[in-house]
Design brief:
Blueprint lengths: L5 E8 L3 H13 L8 E4 L8 H4 L24 H5 L2 H7 L14 H17 L3 E4 L3 E7 L2 E6 L4 E9 L21 E2 L17 E4 L3 H12 L6 E5 L27 H14 L5 H10 L1 H6 L3 H10 L1 H8 L4 H12 L3 E14 L2 E8 L5 E5 L1 E4 L12 H8 L19 E4 L2 E8 L5 H4 L5 H17 L13
Parallel strand pairs: 1-2, 1-6, 2-3, 6-15, 7-13, 8-9, 8-13, 9-10
Antiparallel strand pairs: 4-5, 5-6, 10-11, 11-12, 14-15
Helix pairs in contact: 1-5, 1-15, 6-12
């Protein structure tokens, strides 16, 4: 006998920060709903963790002060107030900086998000289905969802709040993909297993994740040579020594081209040499949605193609503790950061041999005992996820035109073939193609609140659940 499916008003696919925050705001807005108001389908044991805040590595820290992180934009210091400072000082004294800022581990923020949901879980209004989605189908009663463990749900509304797929190996590395010395996913729990202290470590990519890998390896006692490279050799920048004070108005007669926007940013920087560049970039970030909306599709693509690497290293700043480790490794000569292109890779018994072409130099070879890929999310592979592939085949989702995630409307509905889908929503970083800046926590929080408001007002009017279509 086949069990009847579980009926919920809202099903959220993905229980990381985005999914957890949507659930919290929705359930607060709809206190009238009883048991099984909402389900989150998330394979991890704890809600709120996700890829960003699921790391248990004590070297992986939030990259903005705790005072600027919160589940609620109306209470910006909620996380800071939740922290038990005495306990944190006893277990993680490095979280505290002389400036008074606190940078706890990312796992601590994930625990905070989970704690905010505990009451709703205890009351039965929120169900955590610890599983992975295998398919989502449109039915007359709403949406039918199946999981890898054969759980079946029917939901009036579905929110896709997953992260991007893990990084894919650059083409030259695919020939050695099966070699255990090549780590395709830097977030894999075994990425640094058995790394000898003097091992030759090569990191492909030079952004935030590279810095995380260097910090983790160093904390594990690694002191051998590290070479990190990317096409431009750009590393993530640090925070200003002063409190943030956004500077610049970029939305009055906003730029219509990527070049014009770049020139306006440079002009503000040049006219305020006494102010840290972080203040100007923070203003751009806060105004990002309006700036993105003012650009035509060709200009958005041009910005992504030419300016995104520079934006990323200035926007996504490294935690001071991690920055200190990277700086120390650079100064003692055990870390090199190169601007180079990977051309080839081969494995032999003694090493993985990479052929790289440094910018302005001649092709050269480097040998590694461990190669770790930190090239960032595989945006192009989003529709390879089986349940998303099925939705795409059915005409319910599609990749966004600039290649950052899934196509959505400004009210968060999935958009495919020119049609906005009823009660199917895309939230968080997957909707960057529509909203622009959607990777920092303040923007993700605001996005989650917006989705929750829409769900609370519109998407939970129940359908008559009389039958399920195959």
């Amino acid at each position: 006998m086949v069990a009847s499916p579980l009926h919920v008003r809202v099903a959220i696919v993905g229980g990381g920060a985005t999914g957890a925050m949507i659930a919290w705001h929705f359930l607060r807005a709809r206190s009238d709903l009883g048991a099984n108001a909402l389900a989150i389908i998330e394979p991890r044991a704890r809600l709120g963790a996700g890829q960003a805040y699921g790391s248990n590595d004590p070297e992986h820290r939030i990259n903005v002060p705790a005072s600027r992180m919160s589940i609620d934009t109306q209470t910006p210091e909620d996380f800071s107030a939740w922290l038990d400072r005495d306990a944190l000082e006893a277990t993680d004294p490095d979280a505290f900086l002389p400036s008074g800022d606190i940078y706890p581990t990312r796992a601590t923020f994930g625990i905070y998000l989970a704690a905010r949901l505990e009451q709703e879980q205890g009351a039965g209004r929120l169900r955590h289905i610890r599983d992975s989605v295998t398919s989502i189908h449109k039915i007359s009663a709403g949406w039918a969802i199946k999981t890898d463990g054969d759980t079946q749900l029917v939901a009036d509304a579905v929110v896709i709040a997953t992260s991007h797929p893990a990084p894919s190996l650059p083409k030259p590395l695919r020939t050695v993909a099966n070699d255990p010395r090549v780590v395709a996913n830097p977030w894999a729990i075994n990425a640094l297993d058995d790394l000898a202290p003097d091992a030759r470590l090569v990191i492909v990519g030079t952004g935030l994740t590279m810095a995380d890998v260097v910090a983790s390896a160093t904390a594990h006692g690694h002191h051998g040579p590290i070479i990190a490279f990317s096409r431009r050799g750009l590393r993530s920048r640090g925070h200003a020594s002063t409190s943030p004070d956004p500077l610049g108005d970029f939305t009055t007669q906003p730029a219509r081209t990527a070049r014009e926007l770049l020139n306006r940013i440079r002009a503000v920087l040049a006219s305020h040499p006494d102010r840290p560049w972080q203040d100007v970039l923070d203003a751009v970030r806060k105004q990002g949605r309006a700036l993105w909306a003012a650009l035509s599709m060709p200009e958005r693509k041009r910005l992504i193609r030419h300016l995104r690497p520079f934006w990323d290293v200035h926007r996504f700043r490294v935690a001071p503790q991690i920055e200190q480790t990277v700086d120390r490794r650079l100064s003692d000569g055990t870390l090199q950061i190169l601007a180079a292109r990977l051309e080839d890779a081969e494995a032999n018994p003694s090493a993985v041999r990479l052929t790289i072409h440094p910018r302005g130099g001649a092709t050269t070879h480097i040998e590694a005992d461990r190669v770790i890929n930190t090239t960032g999310p595989n945006h192009a592979g989003i529709l390879a996820v089986p349940y998303l592939h099925g939705l795409a085949q059915g005409g319910f989702v599609e990749a966004d035109p600039v290649g950052l995630g899934l196509h959505t409307t400004f009210d968060h509905r999935a958009l495919a073939r020119g049609v906005a889908q009823d009660r199917l929503f895309i939230a968080g970083p997957l909707s960057r193609g529509t909203f622009g800046e959607l990777m920092g926590l303040p923007e993700v929080t605001a996005n989650a609140e917006s989705v929750a408001r829409l769900l609370a007002s519109d998407a939970v009017t129940p359908h008559p659940h009389s039958f399920i279509e195959a």
